[in-house]
Specification:
Layout lengths: L1 E4 H9 L1 H9 L9 H17 L6 H14 L11 H11 L3 H8 L5 E12 L5 E12 L5 E9 L5 H5 L1 H18 L6 E9 L7 E6 L3 H20 L22
Parallel strand pairs: 1-3, 4-5
Antiparallel strand pairs: 2-3, 3-4, 5-6
Helix pairs in contact: 1-2, 3-4, 8-9
């Protein structure tokens, strides 16, 4: 069965024609950079720490960061010095577990890390695909979905409330509940910011709510995207041209 991920939905929402170029024509769009390499490496550290694996976290991060940088295309121009970013990571690593323990101060147990979702979307003949960074269960019986996000100093209120940012957790909540047969009221969602340039509180966890209306809006957007993808309606959204790597290229004149 065909599937769609949140990142694919985001690309369609950015511009349906951009979605065609990257997902249908298989052209390379965004190819990653030093920030995505940093994010992947520190995500891996978070996963191992939550699973209480025995490892040397600083050495492991440096090795993974180097591997992720090496996987980038050779023509990628860095905007920031990776060595400086590695030093910034050293300030984040010791704060990860204390931040989680403090946030869930009444106790928690790790239910899963990097849990895959491949869940049917109603009668759309599509699955929703995703990977949940972390799920913990607290003594009150609630499940908590957490998504790690690496960033510079943090997020402002506009970013924290942007639907195309927070819908990721909304979809995770909907399809995690469906996968496990859990009541939506027993699931809460959170972002955990890993802040490279912050002077203190380098790990910040905050809750994101997803009430009935928000879930309805998210699913309406998803169904709208699937309808147009199936109909091959690849309309250009010219509001996005200034941010698109294909702008005025042969692929998108």
């Amino acid at each position: 069965m065909a599937h769609i991920s949140f990142s694919e939905l985001k690309n369609w929402n950015f511009c349906p024609f951009y979605h065609k170029l990257t997902y249908i024509d298989k052209l390379k769009g965004f190819r990653g950079n030093e920030y995505t390499a940093f994010g992947t490496a520190i995500h891996d550290v978070c996963e191992k720490k939550l699973l209480q694996e025995s490892f040397e976290e600083q050495e492991y991060f440096l090795q993974r960061f180097e591997e992720c940088l090496a996987e980038l295309d050779s023509d990628i121009e860095f905007r920031e010095d990776p060595e400086k970013m590695a030093v910034q990571a050293m300030g984040i690593l010791p704060e990860i577990m204390p931040a989680v323990d403090k946030y869930f101060s009444d106790g928690y147990e790790v239910t899963s890390t990097e849990e895959q979702l491949m869940v049917p979307i109603g009668d759309e003949n599509y699955n929703f695909k995703g990977y949940i960074d972390l799920v913990v269960k607290t003594p009150d019986g609630k499940y908590h979905i957490i998504d790690w996000k690496s960033c510079s100093w943090g997020w402002d209120m506009r970013r924290r409330s942007d639907p195309m940012v927070t819908y990721q957790l909304t979809f995770y909540k909907i399809f995690f509940a469906q996968k496990h047969g859990i009541d939506l009221k027993d699931i809460e969602t959170h972002f955990a910011l890993l802040k490279r340039t912050a002077k203190k509180d380098r790990v910040e966890i905050f809750r994101v709510t997803s009430g009935n209306k928000k879930r309805e809006n998210a699913m309406q957007l998803l169904r709208k995207a699937l309808f147009n993808i199936k109909k091959k309606n690849y309309i250009k959204d010219k509001r996005s041209c200034g941010k698109c790597e294909f702008c005025k290229s042969p692929e998108c004149p």
